[in-house]
Amino acid sequence: MHGRDVNGIVEIGSNQLAGSGDRMQVIPNGDALYVGTWFNAGLRVYDLADPTSPEEIAHWIPDCPPGQKAVQINDVYVADDLTIYATDRVTGGVYALEPEPWLAEKLDNGRRSP
User: What is the DSSP code string of the chain?
Assistant: First the structure.
């Protein structure tokens, strides 16, 4: 971490993302679900109920906007009504996404986790 030896953090699980993206934004939705963006790898939803084995349960990648070489999904926000808003950092603008019923239930339940 920036050339320093930092102790006190131990990896307990991981899920390697296929595709590319050098930055991500991750937002918690309760204790069990996280929604994140990975530039051209789009928007991903992970179930972290078992932190030793994170599982991708949903994803979305839009068509590439005209004039861009790839999508650049950069920011994400999950509203109280479970609408997911994502932005393309170049020219794609903002997208409003509605989770399918099974995912909406997981997002809602995750938000209410103790």
Answer: -TTS---S-------PPSS--S--EEEEETTTEEEEE-BTT-EEEEE-SSTTS-EEEEEE-PPPPTT-SS--EEEEEE-TT--EEEEETTTTEEEEE---HHHHHHHHHHHT--
